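Quick start: read one record
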Amino acid sequence: MPTASNPRLEGRDLAAWKGMLRVHRELIGALGAGLERDYDLSLGEYEVLLNLADAPPDGLRMSEIAAELVVSRSGLTRLVDRLADRGFVTRARCPSDARGYFAQITAAGAERFAAARGAHLAEVRRRFHSQLDAGELDSLARIWDRLLAPAVAKSPK
């Protein structure tokens, strides 16, 4: 167990932390590679389209999308700019806040997302869900909620 005099992770603590990092890297890498190869979308672009596909008709504020993704605001701007250049999203100024922007999915973006979604989710199920039983999935869901609770409590509304 790490202490003030021994800040290193060891044993079970190290194995759990390194395991989470390795699993994350491998899953994200494999899922992203499949989307790139088969649908010419990065995982980040797919996630933007996912958020916009489920959004109200007016779209979402860029800040709302950034809150859902693990990406900086500048990183999100670059993602949305790439998607806009390809005709998959549009951006418009927020009428109530001249500094803000809304992003909306286009018909071409919705079509590309719909084409990718089924195969992507099948790969998520194959690489993640099918490797665990129902109890393990329930445990993981509780663990993720517990680990994220302090971050959610601190996040600005």
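The CA atoms of residues 17 and 135 lie 21 Å apart.
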